[in-house]
Design a protein that fits this description.
single chain, TPR repeat, mainly alpha, Cell division cycle protein 27 homolog B, nucleus, 3-stranded antiparallel β-sheet, 5 strands, repeat
């Protein structure tokens, strides 16, 4: 009953019938209250999203599996300290982490959530060492920025190790299977174990008879009893003892045709003389009368005492006479021996020859050899011929066949092992490419990551996960059009995949694709209302409409659904910053950093807030931290240069602006900031040259024309200054800049000391 219930519980879990599994497992634990069954019930609770129930029944359990499940329950309930104490008890420092690689992975997640990144990296590395195919551990190492090259992690040495583990696992499974068979065999009734061998020995003993005229030959008759016949003719000749015949194994039925050919052709008697000394001593003292008696019973065709046997042998003689043409293949006219008891020739074929012929004929036709010798029983007589020749031939054939069987078995094993080796190498090659691309992407080496992802086969590249990674890489490269293309393709191929859709919504936000963003938000909500990505998309939709308060509510909803979703915290900080609520903005940015220390967007948000508050040292610190995480971002370089310029470190600021321009030549912001710094250094000609280059990239930027007007005013080229100010006003600048531009235009003809420096 217990086994049946356990099987049904596992079956329900496999079929995602979690409620049914919980119910059955509760009945199981009530009937058979063991800790193993409690572990199974806890597993059912976790599958049914009831970690509190698993927590309750596992509290205080000491088995490793129970500790792991209890720690998982604590982790899902956000009881991180208790989960850590369960996996690594303080009072037992030498105890092993339960459940191997997955236990170390869970402990690493706990360390990461509590801000101990180095300890988390150690646990993830240990998990990956125990299980090289634990992709989640390598993914976490990449997110932490400490993952080793994928070529080293998924190397040839790893492949050899996996092959060895697979071979040892297969050997263990075979050993367990053999042990189970042995246990089953030993559990059979003793009567069966005794009866079957005894019956086989008795059958062998009763069917062994001496052949007259051949002191070294035996004829073995294998009798097949007919279950519907009660009258069974039996030989009444005495049989050798079982101990004398138990070691004699009759040759295969139709295997050694060549042995029969060689024997009947006359070569066998010579060998018999040569090897006669090797026969058992009992052969030398057999009574001649016994030999005659056996001969009469086996080969006499006119006996009056056994009419049924005579009729049978007469029928055999008729059959054998019709088969004279087939006897030619066995060696001419036969062989005559000195004893005179038996003569084999073509005119009077003996039972020996007829048996040999039947053996050859049945081998050609390939049915099972059976001959109806009597009405009540069926006999098949197989002559062993001479004892030295036949056993040697049979053992040779058996050895050859055994060698062929072993060779075929070895070839199958080698083929299977080669397939396993090829499969392991192919899998590691795929993980190597995916891992290296993801590692480079997490290090924000986006161009290199794109090159690695392009090496994937088409079937792997055109999957939701890979296309989302490609879209993220283009997003970090500020190539929103390409990012939009790959995110859209990923969403089309895998519409129910929500990972990365928060970034996709931000891409559409930057592209001002309001209608598409609204449609995406509705679609994600319809797929899963409890996913933070869906509510981030809704928030971006309202943020694009400048409805910051509604956007903030949606971002907060995403935080409530998943407090470990760092990007939702950052988006809340952006909305508070847009509402000029800098205190709450700083709070949410810091929450994002508690979740993910390498979330550079939060560092950037903190720097922007401090820059607006004119806390330039703090701004420079946070921008530099973000730049250290993502050293290839043109935007971060530009804002760091702005902070340095505010700190009057103009040379450093110019160097940073040059790097920002080189990183992204299409980004207009660093060009404008460089011109502004050059203007502050009174390098007006260089500033105008930079602005002319900027005009080719962003010809409709009002702030650019306003700065050009100010420079022309400093150069006392008033008509060009008025012209540039007019263009700036025509481009409808923001309300904050509109008043400044109008004031500067009105004061063009005034002395320099009356001009504003707001531009």
């Amino acid at each position: 009953m217990e086994t049946l219930m356990v099987d049904r519980v596992h079956g329900s879990l496999r079929l995602f019938m979690h409620r049914n599994a919980v119910f059955l497992c509760e009945r199981l634990c009530a009937q058979f209250p063991s800790e193993t069954n409690v572990q199974l019930l806890a597993t059912c609770y976790l599958h049914n999203n009831q970690p509190y129930a698993a927590y309750h029944i596992l509290k205080g359990k000491k088995l490793p599996e129970s500790r792991y499940l209890f720690a998982m329950s604590c982790f899902r309930m956000n009881l991180l300290r208790e989960a850590e104490d369960t996996l690594c008890p303080v009072n037992e420092p030498n105890i092993e982490v339960p459940n191997g690689a997955t236990g170390h992975y869970l402990l690493g997640m706990i360390y990461r959530c509590t801000g101990r990144m180095s300890a988390a990296a150690e646990q993830f590395t240990q998990a990956l060492t125990l299980d090289p195919l634990l992709w989640a551990a390598y993914e976490e190492l990449c997110i932490l920025g400490v993952a080793e090259d994928a070529d080293e992690c998924f190397s040839e040495a790893t492949a050899l190790r996996l092959q060895q583990e697979h071979a040892s696992t297969s050997a263990l499974e075979k050993s367990n299977f053999a042990n189970e068979n042995r246990i089953l065999s030993s559990s059979l009734p003793s009567s069966l174990g005794d009866i079957i061998p005894n019956q086989m020995k008795q059958l062998h003993a009763n069917n062994t008879a001496e052949v007259p005229g051949y002191p070294h030959a035996r004829a073995t008759a294998l009798r097949v009893q007919n279950s519907t016949t009660s009258n069974v003719a039996q030989f009444d000749t005495p049989s050798p003892a079982a101990t004398q015949t138990s070691s004699i194994v009759p040759p295969p039925l139709f295997r050694n045709v060549h042995a029969y050919q060689t024997t009947i052709s006359g070569d066998a008697p010579t060998k018999q003389k040569a090897n006669g000394a090797n026969q058992p001593l009992r052969r030398k003292y057999l009574d001649e009368a016994r030999l005659k008696k056996v001969s009469g019973r086996l080969f006499n065709q006119s006996s009056d005492s056994m009419p049924r046997r005579s009729a049978r042998l007469s029928r055999e003689t008729t059959i054998n006479s019709n088969s004279n043409s087939n006897l030619s293949q066995f060696g001419g006219n036969g062989t005559d021996h000195s004893s005179g008891k038996l003569r084999v020739n073509s005119s009077t074929p003996s039972k020996l020859c007829s048996t040999a012929v039947r053996s050859v004929q049945v081998r050609k036709g390939k049915p099972r050899a059976t001959e109806n010798f009597d009405e009540g029983s069926r006999y098949e007589v197989i002559d062993e011929m001479w004892t030295d020749n036949v056993p040697a031939t049979s053992s040779t054939a058996s050895t050859t066949e055994g060698r062929f069987f072993e060779q075929d078995k070895a070839e199958r094993i080698m083929s299977q092992e080669s397939k396993v080796a090829i499969g392991i190498r192919e899998l590691l090659g795929l993980l190597r490419t995916l891992g290296e691309g993801f590692r480079l992407s997490c290090l924000f080496k986006c161009q290199e990551a794109l090159e690695v992802f392009r090496k994937l086969p088409e079937s792997q590249f055109n999957t939701g996960w890979v296309l989302c990674q490609v879209g993220k890489a283009y997003f970090e490269l500020v190539d929103y059009l390409e990012a939009d293309h790959y995110f859209e393709l990923a969403h089309r191929l895998s519409p129910c995949t929500l990972d990365g859709m928060d970034i996709y919504s931000t891409v559409l936000y930057h592209l001002n694709a309001e209608m598409r963003l609204s449609y995406l938000a509705q679609e994600l909500i319809s797929i899963d209302r409890l996913s933070p990505q869906a509510w981030c998309a809704v928030g971006n939709c309202f943020a694009l409409r400048k409805d910051h308060e509604t956007a903030l509510k949606n971002f907060q909803r995403a935080v409530q659904l998943d407090s470990r979703f760092a990007y939702a915290h950052t988006l809340c900080g952006h909305e508070y910053s847009a509402l000029e609520d800098y205190e709450n903005s700083l709070k949410f940015y810091r929450c994002a950093l508690q979740v993910d220390e390498r979330h550079y967007n939060a560092w950037y948000g903190l720097g922007v807030v401090y820059l607006r508050q004119e806390k330039f040292e703090f701004a420079e610190h946070h921008f530099r931290r973000a730049f250290q995480i993502n050293p290839r971002s043109s935007v971060l370089m530009c804002y760091l240069g702005m902070a340095l310029h505010s700190l009057k470190r103009n040379e450093e600021a110019l160097d940073m602006m040059e790097k920002a321009i080189a990183a992204d030549k299409k980004n207009p912001l660093p060009k404008y900031q460089k011109a502004l710094i050059l203007s502050g250094l009174q390098k007006y000609a260089e500033a105008l040259e930079e602005l002319e280059r900027l005009k080719e990239i962003a010809p409709h930027e009002s702030s650019m024309y306003a700065l050009m007007g100010k420079i022309y005013r400093q150069l006392n080229i008033l008509d060009k200054a008025v012209f540039c100010f007019g263009i700036a006003l025509d481009l409808k600048p923001p309300a904050a800049d509109l008043a400044i531009i109008k004031s500067a235009m009105e004061k063009v003809h005034l002395p320099d000391e009356l001009m504003d420096d707001d531009l």
